Amino acid sequence: MKIEYGFSSTPFGDIIVARTWDGICDLQFLSYNRMDVIHELGTRWGLYTETTQSDTMARTVSKVLFEGYQHELRLDVWGTDFQKKVWHALRDIPFGTTVTYSEVAEAIGQPKAVRSVATAIAQNPVALLIPCHRVVHKDGSIGNYHWGTALKQRLLDWEKHELQQRH
After folding, report:
1. How far is Cα 34 from Cα 121, in angstroms, rounded to an integer?
2. Sign of torsion over alpha carbons 116, 121, 122, 125
3. Three-state DSSP class for 25?
4. Nearest-5° angle of CA 94, CA 148, CA 163?
5. What CA–CA distance (Å, rounded) separates 139 from 53?
6. Most Cβ neighbours (<10 Å): which of 5, 14, 23, 72?
7. How far is CA 52 from the centre of its chain?
8. Cβ within 8 Å of residue 158, ≥6 positions away
9. In angstroms, what CA-CA distances link 140 with 12, 55, 116, 155, 161?
10. Rounded to whole angstroms, what are the CA distances from 146 to 32, 61, 94, 117, 134?
C-alpha cells in the first residue's frame, strides 16, 4: 500500500494529512513532534506501507477546511460497519451546529447505543472531515476531544462565527 502524507498549518495548529490512492485516510492535529506522528502512521498502516511526503496535498486540505477552497476530498476510512454508520451520521451535522451523542445514536437507529457511539466517535481517523468536534453532551457541555477541550471549543466558536458571517 502507498500512503502520501503531508503537513500544513491551520488557524488551530499544524495538521498531518495522509491519503491512499482512494482518498484521505488520516487527518489529525499535531500534538507531538512530526517524526513521532510519522512513526505512528507507519505503525497503524503497517511496516510494508510505502510512504511519500507531499505538503502540497496537506495544504490543499487545509484550504478546503478553513478558507472555503473548492476541491473534492474523498475519504478512505477503515472501520467496522457500526463505526462507518456513526461517521456517516457525523458528516450530516451542518457546519456551525452541534448535536448530542444521543442524537447521533438515534440518527443511526440505535438510540440505546450512546456509549458505543461515543467510542466510535473517539476512533474517527479523519478529524474535521468527519466533524466529531460537533458532538456534545446532552447537558450542553462540550465533552472530550482528542486534542483537548480548549481546541474543541475554539473550533465550535470559529464555525459559529463563520456561519454568522455567511448570513
Report:
1. 24
2. positive
3. strand
4. 25
5. 43
6. 5
7. 21
8. 11, 12
9. 23, 37, 20, 16, 19
10. 13, 20, 21, 15, 13
Q: Model's pTM, two decimal places?
A: 0.90
State the pairing for strand pair 23-29/13-20. antiparallel
Residue of 46, 13, 6 lying closest to 145 (CA atoms)? 13
Task: Write out the three cell numbers for 100.
Answer: 448530542
Residues labelled catalytic: 132
Grid look-up 487527518 returns 27
Q: Which residues pair with 13 in a beta bridge?
A: 10
What pLDDT shows up at residue 159? 95
DSSP annotation of 128 reads T
Q: Rounded to an integer, what distance in angstroms lies between the CA atom of residue 157 and that of residue 166?
A: 14
Q: Is the dihedral of CA 148, 131, 36, 60 positive or negative?
A: negative
* Burial zone of 86 (CB within 10 Å; 0-12 exposed, 13-18 middle, 19+ buried): buried
pLDDT tens-place string over residues 65-116: 999 898 999 999 999 999 999 999 999 999 999 999 999 999 999 999 999 9
Report, as an integer, the average pLDDT of 47-69: 86
Distance separating alpha carbons of residues 133 and 142, to the nearest angstrom: 9
Instruction: Measure CA 74 to chain center.
Output: 13
